[in-house]
Amino acid sequence: MKYRKLKPWKYQLVEPFAIQLGFLPPGDIYTEFVILGIGGRLTLKQYYAWDGASGPCPDIPNIMKGSLVHDALYQLMRLGLLDRSYRKSADLELKRVCIQSGMNRFWAGLIYWGCRVFCGPASWPKPDTLVYVILQ
């Protein structure tokens, strides 16, 4: 049996989700749960997990979609599949999607600013999550 601890994740998609981004990546990126096409279409497969809003931001309805997109893009950066030079684009996507979801522009701008100042380390490459193997 193999399993991973998912303690940091709070949410999981129960159906696929796709969105057209406002920027174009340098090429197609495929992972088990995230697909980012060269045309800027981000597709997240069913069961993709994310942790919602970060820091002092509450998980309110008009931030959930933005946090989902932002977390997926940062995950691609941590995996080294999307260059960290796209971090500003990912932060702008968070702001754009939050506004599209009904968030006030002032609050969306404040969230964007917070990401620009504090979220850099979340895009740094990290080792794979530990996989625990139980032998019988």
Short description:
Helices cover 34% and strands 15% of the residues. It has 3 helices and 8 strands.
Protein model, in words:
With 136 residues, the chain is of the alpha+beta class. 34% of the residues lie in helices and 15% in strands. It has one domain (2-133). Helix 1 packs antiparallel against helix 2. The protein contains three helices and eight strands, in the order βββββββαααβ.
Could you say which overall geometry the principal axes of the C-alpha atoms support?
globular
The strands making up the biggest β-sheet line up spatially as: 3-6-5-4
- What value does the Rg take, in angstroms? 15 Å
Number of domains: 1
Mean pLDDT: 90
Q: Kindly state the number of beta strands.
A: 8
Question: What is the helix fraction of residues, given as a range?
Answer: 25-40%
β content, as a range?
15-25%
Task: Give the terminus-to-terminus CA distance.
Answer: 9 Å
Tell me about the largest β-sheet: 4 strands, antiparallel
Category from helices, strands and their pairing: alpha+beta
Poorly predicted parts? none
Taken in chain order, the helices and strands follow as EEEEEEEHHHE
Number of helices: 3
Write the layout of secondary structure elements.
Layout: E1 2-3, E2 11-12, E3 17-20, E4 29-30, E5 34-36, E6 41-44, E7 49-50, H1 61-78, H2 87-100, H3 105-118, E8 132-133
Antiparallel strand pairs: 1-8, 2-7, 3-6, 4-5, 5-6
Throw out a few tags for this protein.
8 strands, 15% strand, single chain, two-stranded antiparallel ribbon, alpha+beta, 34% helix, 136 residues
